[in-house]
Amino acid sequence: MAAGGPHPDALLLLGDQVYADETSRATQEWIAARRDIHQPPGGQVANFAEYVHLYREAWSSPPVRWLLSTVPTAMIFDDHDLHDDWNTSAAWRADAARTSWWAERERGGLVAYWLYQHIGNLSPAELAEDETYRAVTSATGDAAPVLREFAERAVEEIDGRKATRWSYRRDFGPVRLLAIDTRCGRILNEPRGMIGDAEFDWLETNAEGDYQHLLVGSSLPWLMPHAISHVQSMNEAACRKPGLRGRVAEWFRRKLDLEHWPAFRTSSDRLARLIRRAADSGATVCVLSGDVHHVYVAEALFPEPTEAKVYQLTCSPIHNQERLMRPLFALAWWKPLAHLLRWWMLRSPEIEPLPVDWVKRHGPDFGNTIATLTLDGASATLLLEEAEGDPDEPGLSPMEPIPLA
Ligand SMILES: [Fe+2]
Q1: What is the Å distance from ligand 1's center to 358 Cα?
Q2: 316 alpha carbon to ligand 1 midpoint, in Å?
Q3: Cβ proximity of 24 and 57 under 8 Å
Q4: How far, in Å, from the CA of 148 to the mean position of ligand 1?
Q5: Secondary element (H or E) of residue 159
Q6: Which of 211, 225, 205, 220 is nearest to 268 (CA)?
Q7: InterPro entries, per this entry (predicted)?
Q8: Distance in angstroms (rounded) separating the CA atoms of residues 148 and 115
Q9: Reduced to 3 DSSP states, what percent helix, strand and coil does the chain have, rounded to the nearest 5?
């Protein structure tokens, strides 16, 4: 978000800031000097101390330190901050819980996230009211037990609720950011939710107000390539079936990562209603996401046109180099396939009609890209810049700016 100066007003990092499950060779050597990496979880991060090493490695290079020290930064985690496909489903959690190492990894990961990412998201006023922050800063001895207890509560799902909230709100003048935790806050037992109802109530309350632009930060995109979106919704319905059909659907859910917003249709539809209300009150709404290994801009189209425009802006800064990714995502945006899958999906009596349609306005791009959103009065412009040159002399190649509003 840049506004009129050489420095952006804020930097938003939308997930997978560190990879606990895919560590560098240097980190693996560091771990191997301390414990037996022939025992699970091998060269992956196992505990808080190893997370400290991971963050130090990720954020110690001079350009990154300079960036984080000069630009106000907000962040939200995604799966790899803890583990690939973290909290995909209740069955995934049950399997993780059976391993010897998951509980320690998850607690350590959340304590590290609280320290290295979460408290930087909150304003001084919010921190002053935050019970955990107060307990940590006023502790006379080691505050680790306070944070461990907090992490214990954060993962518990009781009656469709989580006891803690990682989602947060930031206001930048007439611009409001609502960052949604789409990982730890998931409700995995039926009725499933991307976040619990109480957290959604908080989100809706905080979406009210007087602002010109609403930014919804969600590591996982809300509007996806159509084919992937429809398959996810169909898979969610199939996973609810008893017996073999449900188990096969669950296998596909995990194998193909069918766990974005469309795989939580009730939540996705509730988010659509929140967004429509904001757009009807005249605020441009941009849902900002990463995660899916490519870059695109989609415009949401509601049955009744909204007062202001609504966009999904997705930018994965470092895209996955797997060869299969490009044709897969290009195919997923292919209209005939989208129409066929939509028709198939809506044959199911368990799947509600879509409350919103969307069209791709840009992309898909597959370069390593950063996105800058410039909000000036009522206008909104997106600039995508692709990395070029060799790693020793990197540069950025700007694309044609995309006017949004
Ligand atoms: Fe991710």
Answers
A1: 22
A2: 10
A3: yes
A4: 24
A5: none
A6: 220
A7: Metallo-depent_PP-like (IPR029052), PhoD-like_MPP (IPR018946), PhoD-like_sf (IPR038607)
A8: 12
A9: 40, 20, 40
Neighbours of 394 (CB within 10 A): 11
Q: What pLDDT is recorded for position 68?
A: 95
Q: What is the DSSP string of 246-268?
A: HHHHHHHHHHTT--SGGGSHHHH
Number of H helices, E strands in the chain: 15, 15
Helix (H, G, I), strand (E, B) or coil at 271: helix
Residue ranges of alpha helices (H) inside 185-332 are 197-206, 226-239, 243-255, 265-280, 325-332
State residue 324's pLDDT score: 84
Dist CA 319 CA 321 (whole Å): 6
Tell me, in angstroms, the distance from the centre of ligand 1 to residue 15's CA.
Answer: 6
* pLDDT single digits (tens) 376-395: 999 999 999 999 988 788 88
Q: Say whether the peptide bond before residue 364 is cis (omega within 30 degrees of 0).
A: yes
Q: Ligand 1 centre and the CA of 304: distance in Å?
A: 33
Amino acid letter, 136: V
For residue 65, the CA-to-ligand 1 centroid distance in Å is 23
**If we measure between CA atoms, which residue out of 292, 289, 293, 273 comes closest to residue 373?**
289
Which of 75, 47, 46, 43 shows the shortest CA–CA distance to 59? 75
Domains in the chain (CATH in brackets) are: 11-155 (no CATH), 162-389 (3.30.750.180)
* CA–CA dist 28, 246 (Å, integer): 38
Tokens for 83, please give them.
């583990």
- d(CA 217, ligand 1 centre) in Å: 14
Successive 10-residue mean pLDDT values, the chain, 405 residues: 65 97 97 97 98 97 94 96 97 97 98 97 94 96 96 94 96 97 97 97 97 98 98 98 97 97 98 98 97 94 98 88 84 96 95 96 93 96 92 88 97
Residue-level pLDDT at 193: 98
Length of the chain: 405
Whose structure tokens read 């990682």? 166
Of 288, 265, 267, residue with least CA distance to 200: 267
What residue has token string 């979406």? 207
- What DSSP character marks residue 80? G
Question: 301: which 2 tokens?
Answer: 């189209």
